[in-house]
Amino acid sequence: METRVAIIGIIVENLESAAAIHALLHENAAYIVGRMGIPYREKNMSILSVAVDAPNDAINSLTGKIGRLPGVSAKAAYATR
How far is CA 55 from CA 27, 42, 58, 68, in A? Predict the structure, then answer.
């Protein structure tokens, strides 16, 4: 199956959603190349970037599930090749 490389950018304004985010990332661990989380305490939020190499449907599904969590926004940016 063909895969694509992408970065999923996640902004967490409701820190109570963190456990659900980590559960979703754990479920998709096979696709994750790397991840970085930055707590932005001054704004009471967290910023995550997750590099993935996965089928397009898997990236869209994960991004959508994360983005539907309360107080969380997520967007994917894809490599051009």
Answer: 15, 36, 5, 20
The residue type at 12: V
What SS3 state is found at 20?
Answer: helix
Q: Is the whole-model pTM more than 0.85?
A: yes
Per-residue pLDDT tens over the stretch 13-31: 999 999 999 999 999 999 9
Q: CA 30: distance to chain centroid?
A: 14
Q: Residue 58's closest CA among 29, 34, 81?
A: 29
- Encode pLDDT of 55-81 as tens digits: 999 999 999 999 999 999 999 999 987
Chain Cα centroid distance, residue 51: 8
CA distance 22 to 3: 22
Kindly state the tokens that stand for 53: 């190499």
